[in-house]
Amino acid sequence: HNVDPGEYYDQQQSSWSPYPLFRLASPIFFKSITIEPGYYALTPREYKDNWYILFKEGGKIKYIIPVYEREIVPMTFYDDHIPKPKLTISQSLHIKAMDTIGKIFPSAKRKPAPQAYLEATDLERNYLSLVIYFGNYRYYTIFRTIQL
Known about the structure:
4-stranded antiparallel beta sheet, 10 strands
């Protein structure tokens, strides 16, 4: 059915998908799987003590790729790599008002979406390294840029 069972749980606190969006301009290959060009939401999932990256398009799973390494993200990584948004005066006033309401009524407090970041590195001999930072962990995958 190509439906991610954990998607509802991940998105119930967000207005939009918290997963990093990956734009692929040319096909990449993992063993016998060809990942076609397009826009994909990359979602890490654990299944039977192994980690996988789900390539989802329009909410449906298109490809499942195994993760070869999973590590904890350094404490200051997101602060160093993700720029802070520049807010207008009205936006900053709105955020302060919402934070004040959250302090008065704890049930109205908004939970922040998990932070996400992507790193794609072109390696020697036609390989592509993709590192997905999602929440407290980073996930490593590797692809070929030419088909064997």
